[in-house]
Amino acid sequence: MTHSTGRRTPALMIQGTGSNVGKSLIVAGLCRLFANRGMTVRPFKPQNMSNNAAVTSDGGEIGRAQALQAMGCRVPLTVHMNPVLLKPETDTGAQIIVQGKRFGTMRAREYGKQKAELLPKVLESFSKLQSDADLVIVEGAGSPAEINLRAGDIANMGFAEAADLPVVLCADIDRGGVIASVVGTHAVLEPSEQDRIKAFFINRFRGDPSLFDDGMREIAQRTGWQGLGVVPWFADANKLPAEDALDLASGAGSGRVKIVVPVISRIANFDDLDPLRMEPDVSLELIGPGTPLPGDADLVLLPGSKSTIGDLAFFREQGWDIDLAAHVRRGGHVLGICGGYQMLGKTLSDPDGIEGTAGTAEGLGLLDVETVLTPDKSLVEAEGKHLASGASVKGYEIHIGRTSGPDCARPYLHIRDAGGTPKLDGAQSSDGRIAGTYLHGLFTDDGFRKAYLQGFEAVSDLAYEHQIDAVLDDLAKHLEGVLDTEAILEIAINR
């Protein structure tokens, strides 16, 4: 976008030497840093791959990392912050979300052939963000060094070239070989792409950063790129929402209520777990494949899934259905959220083959409900109250399928969507120990979480969203002290 003065909106792209080098967090911190200077900042990621999505104010979905970055900017979420979202359903296929809406399901090879066709939509979204911003910070995906994926690329250099953006390269020293990863990236790029990268910085350094002064000089000499600094390890990163299931960790609390979460293969929208991880009075345990569910759990929480019928089979393969039945016999509580709620019923039907082969699967049978998967997808923000405690609750729905049956006569929540339409949500067993709901994010609501944990005699004083906001401010200060932020801004201005 060009301003009326002829000046283009300042913008730059943060690319990485690999996946999981800390790009998302760096962008979130830079968004907050420049927002704290009074600038109107917007985050952008042309293509993301994640099953942890956020519902936007304009009725679509984007990757959770862009939602955190938008918090860094202190602005509402919009689908244009992440116009292409890939949500893996199998090892080789994913649901494609374009500008917040379902575009189709494709295998990786099929998507590789078609992704270039999505570039106009990506550029359209980028243009919309630029129109009311002083600065746009773009995050790449994976690495530009993956030159085997360069044809039709819309995630890294392909987008940077199409939007004519300068690039800053982020490298992770914690995984080792950082000099080789930066210099090697330079070596495999085309000369025009080498020139597009203006600078680099080193992330996740432990110890005295001055010990890497010679390394910075060596990289700069071999690449011709400007060194922007060395970012020390940011310990409070674990207090921010995890984007990737691989980044999920058990909680640090050792309190009186033990919550157990079986980590299913296509776990999705697991932001429900983030506040529980932070609660001192909660012992949150994530149980991986092949490990039985502990017998001393107070609550088993079944999370959402991107492939519910497939994950139901996965759940049974681990023997977790037997463990869960024993947990219920012992008087334990169960809460299913979204896909977890669907699994708790008697049957789960997919007549149109939306998740794969058409058919009906037997559910866990702990709630007297049945679910039918339907093509239409519910994507709404909602708020209301928890009927058992009367506590306020807010969150979002992001699911396919409709659930009905006798236990729905004992709903879990009374909610209203963004348009004010009221409805009853969820179901409970007659004794209230087993419950399910479609509302994600309910544990991020301090009022609900406090009331819910009180039911287990646990105390909650955590102001979760306030904590996230404070950590983002701390992250911004952390970056300001170690990166040449004026050079970063100059690169963006002189694009």
Structure description:
The protein has 495 residues and is an alpha/beta fold. The protein folds into 2 domains: 11-238 and 471-493, P-loop containing nucleotide triphosphate hydrolases (Rossmann fold, 3-Layer(aba) Sandwich), CATH 3.40.50.300; 256-457, 3-Layer(aba) Sandwich (Rossmann fold), CATH 3.40.50.880. Helices cover 29% and strands 29% of the residues. It is built from 15 helices and 26 strands. The strands form 6 sheets. Strands 2-9-1-10-11-12 form a 6-stranded parallel beta sheet, sandwiched between helices. A 6-stranded mixed beta sheet has the order 15-13-16-18-26-25. Strands 19, 20, 21, 22, 23 and 24 form a 6-stranded mixed beta sheet that branches. Strand 7 (93-98) and strand 8 (101-107) form a beta hairpin. The longest helix has 17 residues, at 464-480. The N and C termini lie close together (12 Å). The model is unreliable at 1-6 (pLDDT under 50).
Structure described in brief:
The protein has 495 residues and is α/β, with parallel strands linked by helices. A hairpin with a 2-residue loop joins strand 7 and strand 8.
The portion of residues assigned to helices is 25-40%
Distance between the termini: 12 Å
* β-strand amount: 25-35%
Tell me the radius of gyration: 23 Å
Structurally, how many domains make up the residues? 2
CATH fold-level label of the largest domain: Rossmann fold
CATH superfamily of the largest domain: P-loop containing nucleotide triphosphate hydrolases
Mean pLDDT equals 93
